Fold this sequence. Notes:
- By secondary structure, the protein is of the alpha+beta class.
- The protein has a single domain, classed as Immunoglobulin-like.
- It has helices spanning about 1-20, 115-125; strands spanning about 25-35, 45, 50-55, 55-60, 65-70, 75-80, 85-90, 95-100, 110-115.
- A five-stranded mixed β-sheet has the order 4-5-1-8-9.
- Strand 2 (about 45) and strand 3 form a beta hairpin.
- The protein starts with a helix and ends with a helix.
- The mean pLDDT is about 80.
Amino acid sequence: MRRLFLAAALVLMFAGLVSCGNKPAESVITIQVTDGKTKEVPVIYLSDGSQISVALSQDVEGAASGVATINNNCGTYVRLGYQYTSRVLWITPGSEVTVSFESGKFYRGVDVAGANADINGFLKRKV
Length: 127
């Protein structure tokens, strides 16, 4: 079963790489800290070496959230860093991804929803 899932994930990633467009599309990454207990700033590390710091704002329920946009014309890996660790995410052009976690459980308790959730779930377990 794992091999089948890995093969499907690799096929989807390869299809994303092959289908690169000429025009960059805006991908949206929403970050939610569900318990709102955060003093850290999440950082998205892009494959070209640049970084995007994501400003978080508190909502009425006490959760903190922020949004980052990435312009890309091919599927790409990014690294979401928080506190002293980071997670790998697969982002495709024009996709919307939501990453949610409790501030003290970033490494083990990350939930990824939206585009490519299955691939990102696999990466969560393996990388």
